[in-house]
Fold this protein.
Amino acid sequence: ELQKKYDNLLNDTASRQQELEAAMLEAKNIRDTLDYIMPELVEKETELLKAEKPGADLETVTSQVEHHKADSQQLASHAPLIESLKSQEGLCEEDQDLLDEILIKWDRGNQPAVERQKS
């Protein structure tokens, strides 16, 4: 009887350890993703906010449109990643703060792109 209880306890402990290890791996993957996307968003946000007003001549406008399309495509390529990050729950406070900052930068990065499409 005692051996059976010990075996059950051992199995429960092993199962919990596996669950914790899986959760830690998932948390690390989320953190790696957050750390990966942040520098790119900072760079894009800076570029978009420094962008010149639409040019007066056709050559300048054409160049700006091509640059804008490239920026928009690069941002759009990260959309699935951003959406998957938005659905994460139970993040530690530090990761949640980083995610909130990323989402703010994401919105800021997309805002000038939307405004340019209108002009």
Q: What stands out?
A: DSSP finds four helices and no strands in the chain. The mean pLDDT is 84.
